[in-house]
Fold:
Amino acid sequence: MMGWYGSGMGFAGWFFMGLFWLVLLGVIIWAVVRLLPSRQHPTGGTSVTETPEEILDRRFARGEIDAETYRAQRAVLAESRGRRQDRA
Structure:
């Protein structure tokens, strides 16, 4: 009989083939998750340690807010920081 090569892979062959594909799928999923941008890490030039005052200063410097809004928000931030320090 031509083309007859035994009784197939057997249990060990099927087990290791299945294990191979599970590991390969896991590596692909891990790589995709690592390469996609995360919502937890801000992007676009802002640092993780940027304070609210620095963000406000940057927005004012870019012209996103006017001087009156800047001063009002700066006062609110200073007031909220003062209250927070009084509690501690």
